[in-house]
Amino acid sequence: MNILSQLIVSGIAVGMIYGVIAFSYQLTFATSKTLNFGQGEALMLGALVGLTTVNFLIGQALGTPLAYLLMLPIVFAFGLAQGAVVEWLGVRPAVKANSEAGWIMATIALGIIFRNLAENIWGRDALRFPSPLPEASLNILGVRIQPMEIAIVVGALVIMLAVEVFNRRSIFGKAVVATANDRDAAGLMGIDTRRVITFSYALSSMTAAFAGVLIAPVTLTGATMGAVLGLKAFAVAIIGGLSSGMGVIVGGLILGITETLTGYYISTGYKDVPGLVLLLLVLSLKPSGLFGRATIKKV
User: Fold this and answer.
1) What is stated as this protein's family in its record (predicted)?
2) Residue 144 carries which DSSP code?
3) Whole-model pTM?
4) Which of 16, 52, 220, 291 is such that its CA lies 20 to 30 A from the CA of 275?
């Protein structure tokens, strides 16, 4: 029983990372009906920029916890800028030309470019990200939990809640919601929908960058760390529904827990299979996702 509980706890931590990245997919899809297929690279760049910043601050005789906290605003700013660049260079021209294949290929191409830049700047070897919390496990009700796993779950929930509160309470956030509900009507009401879409991409990449510095202390950091995470998060977004915030959380938990259980009880070589099977089933039976809403396209 303890082993099962241990696996579920580990799966929840991994699943929440999937959920945060899937949530970042939602942010762009809501306002522009486009996706950034280089989202994994946004996570990777956030982790590497965070690592460089933390190491510099530690070199200035600051403790790791304080360095980690001071690093977060820098990573947030970098994520906002990186997301805006993706929208300006890759998405806006394709949307203006009404080319769906254009923004898909452009975001993939930019992701590859960012990965190559990271390899040339930080190298191809995996790097260790210093943990801001003690690495000794806590024993809670017979289950050993790393403090950083708790931080991952809390941090993931906090960033998603903060974005939702911003969208519901701030003026600019309400413009984002209005654009998501009806872009044409929002434009007629005087909202600069192009700026809103740029902001949604910036916010999306910032969220992914934050996910990068959350997961980095419990894994290795490198130029290739985001590729698989971005792909799995996209599967989570499809499973949960691109229009449902609750869906990405549930979808992330399902995939994270399923992977850990499969890896332990069957084989690590098969841990990716159940999630892909679930993805195929959802696409076949409910293409809008478990919690998504089917939309009618007017022609």
Assistant:
1) Belongs to the binding-protein-dependent transport system permease family. LivHM subfamily.
2) E
3) 0.90
4) 220
Which one, of 256, 261, 251, lies nearest residue 281 by Cα? Answer: 251
Q: Of 51, 42, 47, 50, give the one whose Cα is nearest residue 111.
A: 42
Element (H, E) at 84: helix 64-86
235, 172 Cβ separation under 8 angstroms: no
* Least trusted range by pLDDT, from 70-74, 193-197, 198-202, 287-291: 287-291
Mean pLDDT of 150-178: 86
DSSP lists the bridge partners of residue 138 as: 145
Q: 3-285, which class in CATH?
A: mainly alpha
Residues in CB range of 268: below 8 A, 6 or more apart: none
Q: For the chain, how far is it from start to end, CA to CA, in angstroms?
A: 55
* Rounded CA separation 159/79 (Å): 14
**Are 76 and 210 contacting, i.e. CB atoms less than 8 angstroms apart?**
yes
With a cut of 70, say whether residue 294 has pLDDT above it: no
Domain layout of the chain by residue ranges? 3-285
